[in-house]
Design brief:
about 400 residues; 3 strands; Receptor-associated Protein; about 5% strand; flat; mainly alpha; 3 domains; 16 helices
């Protein structure tokens, strides 16, 4: 249940917000833990104006916030602060993100009810992944939560750095493509129709390429809105198909790995994620089979997921991890050989760490090479597209003026 409240803080400032919990008494307890004095509290929908209800549809917790939170967890647990006090302190400090704050205060309630820390995390899988929850569970069992949270923060920091660098590198190409499309549409719907009238009034027969541009302009002017709606509906349909259906997920997984150049980039990204996940979990004492199962659930590619789950069955049947992964075209032979050496020498964790660093560098290099290749191509396409469009309609006008 959600309760909307009005309260005042220690300085006398009025505060409004909400808490999600199982009852009004628990909601009051949560609010008082924040150092607030309650003036009014109601369950959402009871005497609460609609304009005071918080819209939660767009709320989220970013990876960066989880990284910072993990660092804070590690620091507080290293200082021997009790778990209940840790979650209360961080809940009070997370007012900038109500979704995260509500989750932390709910964890406080979970701990008061006698649940373990990992179970409290497991109640909020929309914020903390299965990988995160299992890591916390392993740290709880070993009594080494501070190191576990430090490992998690390091891992998520690396993962965040990798994904953010990929996204940042693709911002400029995306901007160029968007600009290209916007300029072309703007010219076809505003500039070209006016020039078309001059060509038609001249009575001359325009060349074929001019006719194509005029036809495209007429189509966008007459049916552009319907085309936009169709693209939006079609785009959503494709997105739903590839994310919500097994067949769509398989097609998208195959497509990502089959694309020229991009397929190699995706493969390195998945291999980096695979090695980093397993290295982090093995270092925290999670058994091999469980580490592979969790990695399969967070690697975000159906092909790799099925491959890893099959490897789990092979390992349970007595095969080594290197043997269970060999023969898969998605796993390079050099990686299998290095893992085999790691198993034989008892240094598998360090081998996985080395492989993770190697593939992470490979991803960065591949992205930089891709961007350096895309940028001049995009600029050339923009120039040729706009220049060709203008030439196709200005040439008939030039021919007309040359005839006088």
């Amino acid at each position: 249940m959600r309760f909307i409240y009005t309260a005042i803080d220690e300085d006398g400032n009025e505060k409004k917000g909400h808490v999600d919990t199982y009852g009004k008494d628990a909601a009051i307890s949560q609010i008082q833990q924040r150092g607030l004095t309650i003036l009014d509290i109601d369950e959402e929908g009871d005497n609460v104006p609609i304009w005071e209800r918080r819209i939660t549809f767009f709320e989220s917790v970013s990876n960066k916030e989880v990284v910072i939170l993990s660092r804070q967890f590690a620091t507080l647990f290293q200082a021997d602060v009790s778990a209940l006090k840790v979650f209360t302190l961080l809940g009070n400090a997370s007012a900038d993100n109500p979704m995260l704050q509500d989750a932390l205060f709910d964890m406080v309630d979970q701990l008061k009810e006698g649940n373990s820390i990992s179970k409290a995390f497991a109640k909020h899988t929309d914020i903390f992944s299965d990988f995160y929850v299992n890591m916390v569970a392993a740290g709880e069992e070993s009594g080494n939560l501070s190191d576990t949270f430090e490992y998690l923060a390091d891992y998520m920091d690396r993962n965040y750095e990798l994904t953010s660098s990929v996204k940042s590198a693709l911002v400029y190409p995306a901007f160029v493509i968007t600009t290209f499309v916007a300029v072309m549409v703007l010219m076809l719907t505003t500039v070209i129709p006016n020039i078309t009238e001059i060509i038609i009034e001249s009575g001359q027969e325009p060349p074929i390429y001019t006719k194509i541009v005029i036809a495209l302009s007429d189509f966008l002017v007459s049916y552009g809105l319907f085309l936009l709606i169709g693209l939006l509906v079609g785009g959503y349909g494709i997105y739903w198909y590839v994310t919500e259906t097994d067949e769509g997920e398989e097609i998208m997984a195959d497509l990502k790995l089959a694309l020229p150049y991009l397929g190699n980039l995706y493969q390195k990204l998945y291999l980096s994620r695979l090695c980093d996940n397993m290295h982090t979990m093995l270092r925290s004492g999670i058994p091999m089979t469980r580490a592979i199962e969790i990695t399969a659930s967070v690697i975000d590619n159906r092909i790799y997921h099925e491959m890893l789950m099959k490897a789990v069955e092979d390992i349970k049947g007595g095969r080594s991890i290197a043997d269970s992964l060999s023969g898969n075209e998605q796993i390079p032979s050099i990686m299998v050989q290095m893992m085999q050496i790691g198993e034989e020498t008892g240094e598998l964790g360090n081998i996985l760490k080395t492989l993770s660093s190697f593939y992470r560098r490979e991803v960065k290099n591949a992205v930089e090479a891709l961007v350096s290749l895309i940028e001049p191509i995009m600029i050339l396409m923009l120039g040729l597209g706009v220049g060709g469009l203008l030439a196709s309609v200005l040439m008939p006008i030039y021919n007309l003026s040359a005839g006088f």
